């Protein structure tokens, strides 16, 4: 069944119920269906090939949500673009994905076809396609080969997570969900599809409130937001400086968080500020969406103890490989594959499991606990960052002859940092400027340090632990008191 | 003249935003357009509170306060004894 089945059911049952809200603009279910129907009709008339994705390059909000619904209703899969990423990277992604068109407010460089959704008249939503193994979304994340990597998710996989999450927090028509994550981030599937399947309303967070935490609190109160799903780093900032007085958000029933480890002292601060709100730790790489979860037990928050990732979710099965302790996952939320040059390639091993690259164990209660990465991948405020991709960008700088990127940790979590070897002296700022043209902000190294040569192991490979020690001396930020 | 501005400039230009030539980044230039985001602002507030011994009130954390180095310096100065 289509990911939009629930939306379609609610459209029939409660066409006038509030559906999408962005500032003063409010649309009910019928208006959303008609806006999406207008775009879907245009997509059908263009006769675009079904097997190729359609890019959505709109700022997160009502227009973007309607475009996503239209793409799915017309039987295509959507490719959300990060409007803040450098143009060069977006061109690469469009090309690799083989997108047949781009839905945007202005003509888009490198697009095969451009669709401006604004002048399209409302039209009924076409009958939904039914193939649940059809692809619904391709989400590009950082790749270890030096280029971004597309994870292709089917209707079935996204539904498995969204239905499960909706049940977990008992989403219903009375709920108002704050949409915070950008569309290219897998968290956004909850905001859109769990919410619309429950007949609830999506409230798009004005982006400027991310840098005005006490106004964020005010906005959540005014909109009467009942639930949200975001990353721990944002919640940490908010709990620290959000003017969160006890009782200020009586409507906020639940918060889901995922994407990175939530340091326990900061989770405890959030839990203390919001005694009535249920908190859930969700875990899973983009390839599995969410496969494990832990409803936060406030009585078990000990500052020096990391919280567990909990027990399997969404009907997925977990396995810890003997030997290296790698966590393997299989089940309904698994992505269909990686999308490379317009084709699917498998992401499971010969036995049908996805190997996460995360090391995991079990605690005395039998819950899964996250123990770190087996490879070099870093999680930076919920985003996957492959050091190899930053290194490839560094090596494209003419004077850089050698480099190594490692994670450095401070009170705010892990960030990439770079050691470079150069033919001639170039200011680190120029290298940073070069990288900013090529990588999204979350992948930019916290700092770039010049070395005469990289420390190496006896086998000739860079000694990353030594590089890390050298770079770690640079970080001095301590935790907030 | 404030002594905090050079320290703020050094920290922000080196760790929080990306510009090719920090020497010509003016005190009026827009930091938010230059890439200062919410996590950068959190770092910046941490840094300012620790380095300059101030407490920056929750309700004053607004885009206008961190828009450029002049605004930022004035804001932090206003909380120093």
Structural write-up:
The complex is a heterodimer of chains A (481) and B (81). With 481 residues, chain A is of the alpha/beta class. Chain A has two domains: 5-197 and 285-373, 3-Layer(aba) Sandwich (Rossmann fold), CATH 3.40.50.12780; 386-472, GMP Synthetase, Chain A, domain 3, CATH 3.30.300.30. In chain A, 27% of the residues lie in helices and 26% in strands. Chain A has twelve helices and 26 strands. In chain A, the strands form six sheets. Chain A has a nine-stranded mixed beta sheet, sandwiched between helices. Chain A has a four-stranded parallel beta sheet with strand order 4-3-5-6, covered by helices on one side. A four-stranded antiparallel beta sheet of chain A has the order 7-8-18-19. Chain B has one domain (4-16, 25-77): Non-ribosomal Peptide Synthetase Peptidyl Carrier Protein, Chain A (Orthogonal Bundle), CATH 1.10.1200.10. The model of chain B has no long low-confidence stretch (mean pLDDT 90). Chain B is globular, with a radius of gyration of 12 Å. Chain B has helices at 4-16, 38-52, 69-77. With 81 residues, chain B is mainly α. At the A-B interface, helix 7, helix 8 and helix 11 of A face helix 1 and helix 2 of B.
Total number of helices of chain B: 3
Number of helices of chain A: 12
Q: What order do the strands of the largest sheet of chain A run in, or round the barrel if closed? A: 2-1-10-9-11-12-13-14-15
What does the largest sheet of chain B look like? none
Q: Which CATH first-tier class of chain B would you pick?
A: Mainly Alpha
Q: Superfamily at the CATH H level of the largest domain in chain A?
A: ANL, N-terminal domain
Helix content of chain B: 40-55%
This entry's quaternary arrangement is heterodimer
CATH architecture call of chain B = Orthogonal Bundle
What is the domain tally of chain B?
A: 1
According to CATH, the fold-level topology of the largest domain in chain A is: Rossmann fold
Helix-strand makeup class of chain B: mainly alpha
- Please give the share of residues in helix of chain A: 25-40%
Q: Mean pLDDT across all residues of chain A, rounded? A: 93
Radius of gyration of chain A: 22 Å
